[in-house]
Amino acid sequence: MYFGRIFLVKCLLLLFPKAKCTSTINIYKAVNETALLSFTAENTHETLWSRGNERLLQMKDKKIKYYVEKTQCRCKVLLNGTLRIERLVKEDSGIYKVSAYDKNGKLKANETIVLIILEPVPQPILNAECINKTLYVKCTVKKTEDQVFTIELTQGKINKSQTNVTEVEFTTQHSGIYRCTVKNQVSKKTTEKEIKCPGQLNLYLISCIAGGAVFFVVFVILLIYCIKKKKADRLVDDDEERMQIHQVDKEMAMRKLPQPPSNPTPQQTCVQQMPPPQPHAQQRAVPPQPKPRTHLQAPSQLRERH
Question: Which residues form the signal peptide (predicted)?
């Protein structure tokens, strides 16, 4: 059965080798914008544009013929066959068809373009409520009739998206920057707000506090280590200084008190036995000792003795 279909397609290609395939393109435009509808063929002699079953205009040999009122259509065709529609309204939405021919009347293009006119999305409104350390975030949009868009509510890695609704909400315990985006094929608007829940510690704040505590502990440990090391170095320096001073004192003492010779000469012995001279301050005059009193005898006694 599969090979039979392939054989049928090959036969059709052989019978109609120059057949043109119709392509369809979707184009989205916003209200009050300008649309340019083009096709792929070049060097065309005649171009015919229509919307649905209604003809719009025809360009043949660079002459334009309108089948509708020019002011109502708000359209014109360029030299390359492109259709230009200005000041778009939602009623301009529809299926546009173009057929292009060369000078011999041979079909060179037969394409279909779906033009969709949308209104720009409204500005979203972002609200939040904190209850028992829990955040209730809501994004709302005022929707008009026949308006289709997508609402995205994001915070970090949290993302919630819904289409063709007027509000999106979710519950979380994380404070931070929340972003509400409303978009469609022709426009996009965003509202951003930083939302915090009172009494709730942020993960970033907790990380900063923990990091600060670790840094403080490491700093204290390093400070204690440096103080102890400095004291130990100071003690080592003091010990070395004391040893040097002791060594210098010992050398000075050795220089001041030389060792006596083993066999002293008689003159050296006499010199050594002589007492050192006393300083003048210690030599004081010794007062004369009082003499004993003698009793004077009378001359008569002396005569008797004689």
Answer: 1-21
Closest CA to 135 of 152, 158, 151, 115: 158
The pLDDT, as a whole number, for residue 34 is 93
Cut 0.70: pTM above it: no
CA 292 to chain centroid: 119
> pLDDT grade, residue 114 (50/70/90)?
very high
